[in-house]
C-alpha cells in the first residue's frame, strides 16, 4: 500500500551537480600535485648521490698514498708541525 501524500527524501527536488565544487576540488588536487612535483624535483636535483671530499689536490696525480700526502697542496699539515698550547 502506497501513501499518496508522502514524498520520500530527495524525490521531490531535482538532483543537481554543483560543478563549481567539483572544479574547485579538482583544481586543489592538481595544484597539490604540481607543488609536490616541484618539491620532489628540487630535492632530487640537489641530492644526485654525488658527494664532495676534501682530499689533497695532489692525490689525483700521485702513484701512492705517501706521495699524495707529500705533494699535497691543501690545508693538511703533518702532526709534527702542530703546536700545542698549555694553559
TrEMBL record:
Subcellular localization(s) per the UniProt record: Membrane
Assigned GO CC terms: cortical cytoskeleton; membrane
Neurexin/syndecan/glycophorin C domain span: 40-58
Keywords: Membrane, Transmembrane, Transmembrane helix
Main localization of the protein described in the UniProt heading: membrane
Topology versus the membrane: Single-pass membrane protein
Membrane-spanning intervals of the chain: 20-40
Annotated protein name in UniProt: Neurexin/syndecan/glycophorin C domain-containing protein
Organism of derivation: Muraenolepis orangiensis (Patagonian moray cod)
